[in-house]
Amino acid sequence: QNSSRQVGRHFLHIPGPTPVPDRILRAMDTPMIDHRGPEFAKLAKRCLDGIKTIFKTTNPVIIYTATGTGAWEGALTNTLSSGDKVLMVETGQFGALWKKMADKLGLQTELLATDWRTGVDPKVIEKRLSEDKKHEIKAVCVLHNETSTGALSPIAEIRKAIDAAGHPALFMVDTISSLASTDYRHDEWGVDVTVGGAQKGLMLPPGMSFNAISNKALEANKTSKLPKSFFDWQDMLNLNKSGFFPYTPATLMLFGLDVGITMLHEEGLDNVFARHDRLAEATRIAAKHWGLEILCKDSKYYSPTVTAILLPEGHNADQFRAMALETFNISYGASFGPFAGKYFRIGHLGDVNDATMMGCLATTEVALQLFGVPIKKGGAQAAMDYLLSQHGAAKKQAA
Ligand code: PLP
User: Fold this and answer.
1) Cα 141 to middle of ligand 1, angstroms
2) String of b and e for 33-53 (b: at least 16 CB within 10 Å)?
3) What is residue 187's three-state secondary structure?
4) Alpha helices in the chain (DSSP H)
5) Backbone angles phi, psi at 347, to 5 degrees
6) Residue nearest to atom 12 of ligand 1 (CA)
7) Which residues form the Aminotransferase class V domain (predicted)?
8) CA–CA gap between residue 173 and residue 143 (Å, rounded)
9) In terms of C-beta density within 10 A (0-12 exposed, 13-18 middle, 19 or more buried), how is residue 110 classed?
10) How far away, in angstroms, is 398 Cα from ligand 1 center?
11) Number of CB atoms found within 10 A of residue 61's CB
């Protein structure tokens, strides 16, 4: 007999949107309040102050009622003018999409290509900027974490590379799939605009995004001529001072954000980062044991939030994902670009713990075999042994 019902909790292992904790869902399940009233102003102030602690900045953070793509547009239009040269890196699908947006906005983009299997090499940035003697490049835009391939780039080192070239370009960083999952320091790392999103490490539904901004970016804003209206920083900064927005913001998302930030600090940001590192390593241990190749070639760029796993020739990853969803009620991330159909991605970010990852990896091991992928059994066990060793070491340290 066919069944039209999927039983139990869905195993959402795409790299965002991530599972929203019940506590956040409950906080959002609340009657509407006046977005020009005193209760709202208090809520907004808590969010506007709290979000700074996540970006590690003392400057204002803009909260947009838009998905991450909106915050990309806000970063570019608030700081640049038509025809400005922008240096970008095609680490994968999202690097390519940000470039496409910059082109549409009338910027002159220069794209540094990669093979989609690595992060950004700071030396390449330094070399290109050193050649730009006339300082025609106005901004360098990179992704901290390329979600489509699972590669993390070294932001502090890229900052040093820009400084070593003595170049004044603005530095813009997309942290949509790294913020609140791995260490990020907007002020200390000298980033001018950081783009963030709600639906990954912050554990919220999609529909909210952020621009953290440096003083240099605020200066650039004064002379930037690209048209901006909905994403205009100035309107926002003016009204945010009293806890309001230039339009009707997503009130319920703010209720959720307030709790999300509280939960991150209750766990402790360093513990949040250590948990993501541990779950990422467990995932890679399983994949390697299975004898499958990780798309990111160089371990120094391994992502703490998402792992892309290549299937052997002759095994279509899209069909594998569809089979796993139907049979085991588990979702994986899709594949893109030159590797479309060749890999699937396991998201291990947001409100996930050791138990959810053990469930995910054991399920994946069974699903791979059911799909006929020739793997060496025991990858989930190897990941479990690793998790046991990590907790054992922590227990010993505490004793
Ligand atoms: N940048 C990165 C790194 C992403 O992962 C995503 C979405 O997953 C985006 C940008 C686009 O964000 P959104 O889909 O919220 O508009």
Assistant:
1) 14
2) eebeeeebeebbebbbebbbe
3) coil
4) 22-28, 38-55, 68-77, 93-104, 122-131, 155-164, 215-223, 233-240, 251-267, 269-290, 317-328, 354-370, 379-398
5) -85, 135
6) 68
7) 32-321
8) 5
9) middle
10) 39
11) 22
| 115-152 per-residue burial string, b: 16 or more CB within 10 A, e: under 16 | ebbbbbbbeebbebbeeeeeeebbbbbbbbbbbbbbbb
Transcribe 43-98 into DSSP letters. Answer: HHHHHHHHHHHHHT-SS-EEEESS-HHHHHHHHHHTT--TT-EEEEEESSHHHHHH
Full set of structural domains in the chain with CATH? 11-18+269-393 (3.90.1150.10), 22-265 (3.40.640.10)
pLDDT in tens, 60-93: 999 999 999 999 999 999 999 999 999 999 999 9
Task: Check if 94 has its Cβ closer than 6 Å to any atom of ligand 1.
Answer: yes
Q: How far is CA 178 from the centre of its chain?
A: 4
What average pLDDT does the segment 225-251 reach?
A: 97
Q: Locate 334 and state its tokens.
A: 């899709």
User: What does the pLDDT look like over 88-128, one tens digit per residue?
Assistant: 999 999 999 999 999 999 999 999 999 999 999 999 999 99
Q: Is the pTM for the entire model greater than 0.95? A: yes
For residue 68 and ligand 1, the question of a CB distance below 6 A is answered with yes
Q: Are 236 and 245 in contact, with CB atoms under 8 Å apart?
A: yes
CA–CA dist 358, 177 (Å, integer): 22
Residue with tokens 């979702």: 331
